[in-house]
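Predict the 3D structure for this chain.
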Amino acid sequence: MNVHPVLINGVWNVSTGAQSFHAVNPQTRAALARRFPVSPWEEIERAVQAAARAAELTRDWPGARFARFLERYATRIEGRAAELVAAAHEETALPAEGRLAKAELPRTVNQLRQAAAAALDGSWANPVIDTAANIRSMLAPIGPVCVFGPNNFPFAFNSIAGGDFAAAVAAGNPVIAKGHSSHPETTRLFAVEADAAARETELPPGFVQLLYRTDHADGERLVAHRLIGATGYTGAREAGLRLKAAADHAGKPIYLELSSINPVFVLPGALAERSAALADEFAASCLMGAGQFCTNPGLVVVPAGAAAEAFFELVRNRFESAPVAALLGEGVLRNLERGVESLRAAGAEAATGAAAAAGSGYCYRNTLLRVSGERFLAVPAALQAEAFGNCSLFVFARDSAQMRQIAQALEGNLTGAIYSATTGGDDAAYAEIAPELRQHVGRLLNDKMPTGVAVSPAMNHGGPFPATGHPGFTAVGIPAAQRRFAMLQCYDSVRPHRLPPALQNQNPTGTMWRQIDGRWTQGHAG
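Done. Predicted structure below.
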């Protein structure tokens, strides 16, 4: 039985582990032939030591060195686009053309190139110079970073190619990628190109490494390791919180994206103006990719009455007529079934779906649930259970005051949206609800579904717990995403020639923004 090797210290090593696994095609439930190792602790330790050596060599490198790697890597990915799309489609059942080839892969290489530009410019490090006191500070690499990738974005959030990886490298850190078991061949192909790009741009061995899988206990040891600088994790809440507990106990930063139901509030004027268009927009957003987006609208709050009932019927009809797509795997199907059962046990009624779909794949019928505002407020925690997939819960609120109470009862979410009348007729209700919703979401949207996440410097793909582990950071958006993987370093009365270039009087790039004596400038100090 051939098992693919792991990438450690610049070498593709045969794993020393006794266990292995294979991915499963979600459309057929058939095991794929390729096998991948479960790395034992001894192997993980070797990766950590190699990353630490790489960090020692690169900690004072200029951003241009990392930018070269990121640019070269992006180009190499484009050269293997067809193979990557084919592998990801087979392992995840996500649409090859519309989703993987035309949306997610271009986003992935765009993220890498944005990160390269930020590394080259250097402004991300926020250099601050106080010439009178001769105190200077900046953000600098934190050390080896672990990246745990999720199942639902095999490209854009891949542990060795996605946003966390790009941000960590652009901040100057080696990365130990812990792949996701759902798409190991996709991740292997990325790692081959990352390794080649690292060699071509003369990064040291150990700067880019790949482990396909670890057991839970070793994952916790990894994030708590004394040589690890920080960890980025995207995935299930339960596993993420176990990693957080281990990292917190060791005093190690860990940045988590855990779960989010992304509430959408539809106000009366919006229903009166454009119910049919809203039903189309909502159904497309909720069912896209079988609902397997972290920004999927899983909760909709509407004002009770005839207009809301008519809107609900429009949505139900669209759910029933839409095709059912395969979920990412058996675990996703099982957790979706549990999530729907939990919501129903808490008082939600199923209007359609709420059962596995016929066929060979991991499929669940498009599901629409409903509950009254009173019932939601009676058990808000239970009715916010995440049902990750093609499912959403409608809450029928008595009036805008109750909608505001519902907003107050929400857990933290990545996003929250409000649809209102274009004529201004909902402005009073908006003013009542929006301030409450604002405190419970990382990104507030108006008249727009939350599923799209633009790779923009202004984007916040974060939010209050349990959406993420910390409300002040984002997993998308350069340069803010880089700052998760940095430490603030201060230099007090350090001799000029001993300072990092970014803190010397001369601006090292000519474009770097620095705060000098309280003023942001691209000029020189002194």
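The domain at 263-446 is CATH 3.40.309.10 (Aldehyde Dehydrogenase; Chain A, domain 2).
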